[in-house]
Design brief:
- 2 copies of one chain form a homodimer.
- The first copy, chain A, has 501 residues and is mainly α.
- Chain A has helices at residues 4-31, 38-56, 59-72, 80-96, 100-123, 126-147, 153-161, 167-190, 206-220, 256-274, 291-305, 309-322, 332-338, 356-371, 380-392, 417-437, 441-446, 451-460, 470-478, 485-498, and strands at residues 227-231, 237-241, 244-249.
- In chain A, a hairpin with a 2-residue loop joins β2 (237-241) and β3.
- The model of chain A has no long low-confidence stretch (mean pLDDT 96).
- Chain A binds chain B through residues 13-14, 17-18, 20-22, 24-25, 28, 32-37, 39-41, 43-44, 46-48, 51, 224-228, 240-244, 281-282, and chain B through 13-14, 17-18, 20-22, 24-25, 28, 32-37, 39-41, 43-44, 46-48, 51, 224-228, 240-241, 243-244, 281-282.
Chain lengths: 501, 501
Amino acid sequence: MTSNLEALKKHLGKIMDLKAANNLLSWDQQVNLPPESGEARAEQLSTLTSMAHSLFVSDETGELLEKAAPEVADLPYESDDAALVRVTRREYERQRRIPEELVAEKARAAATGFGAWVKAREASDFGQFQPHLEHILDLTIEYAEALGYEDQRYDALLDLYEPDMKTARVAEIFGELKEGLVPLVQKIEERGAAVDDSVLQKTYPDQDQWDFGLEILRDIGFDFDHGRQDRAAHPFTVGFAPEDVRITTRIYPDQLQSGLFGTIHEGGHALYEQGIRSEIGRTPLFDGVSYGVHESQSRLWENVVARSFEFWKHYFPALQERFPDQLEGVDLTTFHRAINKVEPSLIRVEADEVTYNLHIFVRFEIEQKLIAEEMEVADLPGVWNEKMNEYLGIVPDDDANGVLQDVHWSHGYFGYFPSYALGNLLSVQFYNQALKDLPNLPQQIENGGFDDLLHWLREEIHSHGKKFTPTELVERVTGGPMSAEPFLQYVREKYGAIYQL
Amino acid sequence: MTSNLEALKKHLGKIMDLKAANNLLSWDQQVNLPPESGEARAEQLSTLTSMAHSLFVSDETGELLEKAAPEVADLPYESDDAALVRVTRREYERQRRIPEELVAEKARAAATGFGAWVKAREASDFGQFQPHLEHILDLTIEYAEALGYEDQRYDALLDLYEPDMKTARVAEIFGELKEGLVPLVQKIEERGAAVDDSVLQKTYPDQDQWDFGLEILRDIGFDFDHGRQDRAAHPFTVGFAPEDVRITTRIYPDQLQSGLFGTIHEGGHALYEQGIRSEIGRTPLFDGVSYGVHESQSRLWENVVARSFEFWKHYFPALQERFPDQLEGVDLTTFHRAINKVEPSLIRVEADEVTYNLHIFVRFEIEQKLIAEEMEVADLPGVWNEKMNEYLGIVPDDDANGVLQDVHWSHGYFGYFPSYALGNLLSVQFYNQALKDLPNLPQQIENGGFDDLLHWLREEIHSHGKKFTPTELVERVTGGPMSAEPFLQYVREKYGAIYQL
């Protein structure tokens, strides 16, 4: 006789397959889609999204969860099966709170809103996007109300990306971070001339960049038997199963750092999903713990590892060999400084690892006000520019490089941005712990050895998938709570040396 | 108020979206899949196939068809809506006859059988495949019984690929064809030395072949805004919507004809699906009339057009320009003969257009006996070799080049092979009709002009999708029934000239 748990797994497996197919439709849309096939693809995406959703929030799921519960009641908290029922039930209860009609309307508004955002950004005209954003915001507020919250409405949205995280706690962490970062950025700015990154803006042929990226991906452990890399206008990572995790990259011949670190960034995300154990690969546990923890893995590889001096002690000779003309007479120190240049800039995704977080503060503060209905959408461009001036000391000339730069709000992703900064903090907390457990790590990296680090990440983080909450995971791995201090110490040390502060 | 017809269309639209997603999973499996992702993909394919099937054979579909029927009762036979209800109901009633359990078991047996076939072929050992094939055959017979038939069991299977076609009628057509072909092949063989195709076996670099193929695809009307070409080990065409039809090709640097005519062949299939009107693109009418009619489109372009003298009068100078060393001193007549060399060979997919049909006779006769249980699977290799000797005068050295060469039976596709030969016959019948309506066609082709021919095919065949039965379509287009005579006349004339018979 099949157990109730087996029946639940079978049911969830079907839903996971539908989601994988939906993810493939989306991957293909961004990687392969013929120019005029967009409408047909939108229909297909909409059908599969709604079928997966309906099946998941169906009474059947509830009944299967109910029946399976006694079978896992005596299992340890961290067992696969107990976690499966616990995590699935949490998600089920959350999604059941949203009326189907609201789900559909939000999806429609996002589809239309995204199109409007693309056009508005091209025209650099916020006015075109404003009515769409107003509608999306209304629906998002309705969505947050349906989800419910204890303290503030923004909590309900934050929880979608960082389970159990509270707005007040984010504000507290960001407060600490701000206090440390703002004076550091000022000091660095005063010594701005100390770093010259013009070496990165020579001409680096596309194919050579691609090949060098592949070499690094292989070295850090990206498994090309269980994944692949393609090109996309906006790089992303998607996993259909732990055995099929795909990354995308974008290469500019005149900006070496963009493709290179973008590739490693997505590689970090992919290592997370490739590292989730196959046993839970066709269940809702095949996912990151949170967006922040996911981001911690991309940032750990992109910044903490691949922007370190040790890393380039190993790779710079190979890079010079591949680009002999471009890097003739350039020394390792100059190169390492170039890839770590700190400079306030307008665009978040191009920001260095120090000023990046300031961009998040701008968005976090604005989002809270919008969701709390303490601010009008119409006032967004003005407020945006004020906050950019406050945090980064620069103001965009136009909406395209300002308030229209991010896609997130057009999709209704309010509450997402904080995860980026939390990911930065966690990347350092996790790396510090790895360093405690593997004191030899810097020497290994200097020798191009990443196996121990990857193995450590697999054991401590990747293999578990979504089994724990972020709070639980951070506590398990680092022995303490999430905190800004380790990151601040890391940037003070690193940039103190680079900028001779 | 929404009409019942609208409700039916919405329901079928969802099923079409599921099928499109399933087709994408399959396309991606053959084009992109990382080496060790096969199992996860098989699960996803199985889930989506069975969901699309369940939804289609659900009572809901039956009720919606029932309710929509009165709304189309007074519409003309060829109206989109009348055809939608008629064709969908036919398919619904057929699929409802198959028990769900049999559908699932056949899918499992095919999945396992395919794996076993791959290994058996690698080992060239029919014995490894035999028990799988026996199981697949049993299930296929059960399937045919469930479908039902009037005269013979094989009819039920044939009908899956050629609606309304009967085994007796195929045997009659093939009889005529055989009577004409066998003496023709003998005469050609006697003059075998007249054609030398060694020019095709020089080294033709992959990228140049690919680029030349793209040029022809564009010229004949393949729309790259509504489709794309990729690489695959076994070339195929798949359409997700008329706006997204994809072909694949395989290029061998030492065999010019393989990639070149393979590309045009798939291009012909794709032109059919790109030409189906958008209005019926998200309904069950988005499909070819039959496998034979689909094949007629690929063969028309591959053979009747692209192996004609006129075609190469236009393209040979461009080909020479692209491959100056390989084609130095080769004249048009030599090249045209080389690509039309007739020679009995072991492998169906590599056969010329004359001997190709003989390969089909071998399979058609064997399949009938297997399905009628007049022959044991264990006797297959022996019977195969006998029939090869009878029709082609050659016998394979091993199973890999004999009875194990085709994938079809491993999937349970019994009844499929006749469509290949019927496609050859129809390609000539359709082209002859086009020539009647557009007497200028050969001159146009000589000038690289394909617009009128494509337009004619669109009007007469492509645009209708699956609206008619093959019998209806052939009658509408040519004014008469399917027949072997036009094909025989075509090969007698063409090869009479080439081989100076």
